[in-house]
Amino acid sequence: MSTRTNRQVCRLERDLETWIETINAVIPSFPALRLGKVHMIWRNIAFAAVLFLGFQSATAQDWNQWRGPSRDGLVPATSAPSSWPESLRRLWRVEIGEGYASPIVSSGRVFIHGRRDPEEVVTAIDLAKGEVIWQQKYAAPFQKNQYAVTMAKGPNATPLVVGDRLFTLGVTGVLSAWDTAKGVQLWTKDFSKTVDTSKLFCGTAASPLASGGLVVVQVGSDVHGGRMLALDPATGAQKWEWRGAGPGYASPVVIDVAGKVQIVTMTESSIVGIDAQTGGELWSIPFPDEWHENIVTPLWTGSHLVVSGTRQGTHAYTLQQANAKWQATEAWKNPDVAMYMSSPVYGDGLIYGHSSKRKGQFVALDAKTGVVRWSTEGRDSDHASVLLTPSHIIYLTNGADLIIARRATKAFEVERRYDVADAATWAMPVLLGGDILVRDATGLIRLTPGK
Known about the structure:
The protein is built from 2 helices and 32 strands. It is mostly beta strands and 451 residues long.
């Protein structure tokens, strides 16, 4: 247990002891409530409560998962500069192997998942110094589909940190829990027998998430069917399971709709809402793609669920309960804006994203109507990761072009542009105040203001 967590346990335990002592004084006829007999029970309850709160609060402190603290690409003000310098210089670069998993940051450490074929490699790096603290590897033989010949062999899923535990999900479907301090493997679950690349060309890609004190993962394939599992983070024990169509490449998200907490995800052929407490399916709507390339992470604006696909265009749905049944109803669609691998962000009443149309366009859609507010002419890039700070839209293209654009404008307005790497940059970057973490083809780079 970390020192901070232990302090929280002790503080909560003291409060519980005071409460129990009051019961002992007021209700002496109930010996089972005597403090001496239930002390350890209450301590266990205290620890469980702190662990649960840790799952809820960790995302408010660190960039600990896919797309950041709130899993929606929104960068907290404390991590985002209000103005950008004329140039950025490289502070350090560490070789980490190939892959598309984004870096995550927790307690002064960077965690990254990579591949040195035929093994997958998990690395912890000192954020300030760029020194490797620990590194673990395991066998992960993977034969990608011939149609994915230009793509790396993963890993694709971004890791998750909760408290002092790191969770990684490899391209073959191997889920591992690691101790963040020493890199000790605490437990592992192997779902590789459910992964088939005949249609899921690039293997497992859905990033794990934390929900209600549990770790949730989406695994499987079209051949073997899809599964979403909620697991105890301490032991890996299964708490609930959903079964349905095989996954696409999108990552699930947790949303709250009128007090109902749901996990929303994309499968190879549909959009699904799942009860976060039980794993029961609440609703499902078709969203087919002939190549099973549902890649974009769903985005919840508070009133609309926005999804997109390279062949389906962009759609928004309202979610509501009627006669004890949940329904997803299409509010609008825009077939001319088709997001392929780029997940959008929401702010200023707009959906900011990157469309694959016209060889790559930066776009802004009205979140209520789907009407294009502005777009670039095209040929901007094949792909761009998108983040939103309080004052800027951040785009990192696969061509290592970091674009800083002003938000809440009537047109696309670039404030700064930087060339940040010598190789392709497909992974989501991480902002660190004035610094930024960028993953290139085989390495992780920290950039800082200066020449």
